[in-house]
Design brief:
Beta-Lactamase; 8 strands; six-stranded antiparallel sheet; Arc Repressor Mutant, subunit A; alpha+beta; 265 residues
Length: 265
């Protein structure tokens, strides 16, 4: 097999499982659409996941939801526990101050994964995004902030991965992030934005801003605020929230470096 070429059946199975885990409950047609796989393929994958126990059919409805067994896929993945402990009080404080939910997000492959969020603490949200929710790395503010601040080698690894996954991101977006112009702008400003979020539970209805989080010199994730796209212009949101977000990210980094999160825990 050619090096670097993924096994499509496995990629499709992962896409289906991620789609069901992301949305919580989907019909077969919705699964096919969300995972971007043919309907017959979605049916076969769903039957396999049912057999393996990772999903279940809802009683009296032709809809499918994840089971507790999906948590087994995360066994042993504790590398970001320190980040969650160090950041929790800061994202809670910012949510109470500005009323918009915040998330701590980290990179896994060519995706950004929610590790913690405050969506449950405010009414200014369309959906609750629990740990494990994934987003394509170039289609979200957190991913854009992350890739801009990553080292050259890691950034090239990410972009190479995106290139090998057809449909993972808009080709024009990929071209932009292959250029130093956009990356330099994000690094200069210290934040990234996404005017309309389409890879979430409410496509097109929210916008987001993200700033990077460092543990000393190591890039460990991003801090993201999500707000209603109709509520304000992005320039206004940047002016209102970015200073507080940068300050919170800096304090999280300092706590990580000093180990203060252990005391708080």
């Amino acid at each position: 097999m050619e090096r670097g070429v993924p096994i499509r059946s496995i990629s499709r199975c992962m896409s289906v499982l991620q789609a069901i885990n992301r949305h919580g409950s989907l019909s077969l047609m919705e699964i096919a659409q969300a995972a971007k796989v043919p309907y017959p393929t979605a049916c076969r994958i769903v039957q396999t996941l049912l057999h393996e126990g990772f999903i279940e059919r809802e009683p009296d409805r032709k809809r499918y939801r994840p089971t507790v067994l999906v948590l087994s896929l995360a066994n042993g993945f504790q590398v970001h526990d320190r980040l969650i402990q160090a950041s929790r009080r800061y994202i809670v404080d910012l949510t109470y101050k500005h009323n918009w939910p915040l998330s701590v997000v980290t990179r896994v492959g060519q995706s950004m994964v929610v590790r913690d969020s405050t969506h449950a603490l405010t009414s200014r949200t369309f959906s609750n995004y629990y740990p494990g929710f994934t987003l394509p790395i170039l289609e979200c503010a957190s991913g854009r902030a992350y890739i801009a601040h990553a080292g050259a080698e890691e950034r090239e690894t990410i972009l190479n991965g995106v290139r090998t996954l057809p449909g993972a991101t808009d080709p024009q977006t990929l071209t932009l992030f292959e250029s130093d112009v956009v990356l330099n702008e994000i690094r200069r400003d210290g934040y990234a934005t996404k005017g309309r979020n389409f890879h979430n539970a409410t496509p097109g209805r929210t916008a987001s801003i993200a700033v990077p989080i460092f543990d000393e010199d190591e890039l460990v994730g991003a801090l993201t605020m999500v707000f209603f796209a109709s509520a304000m212009k992005m320039s206004e949101a940047v002016e209102r929230y970015v200073p507080d977000m940068k300050a919170a990210a800096e304090r999280i980094g300092l706590d990580l470096a000093s180990g203060m999160h252990r005391i708080a825990a």
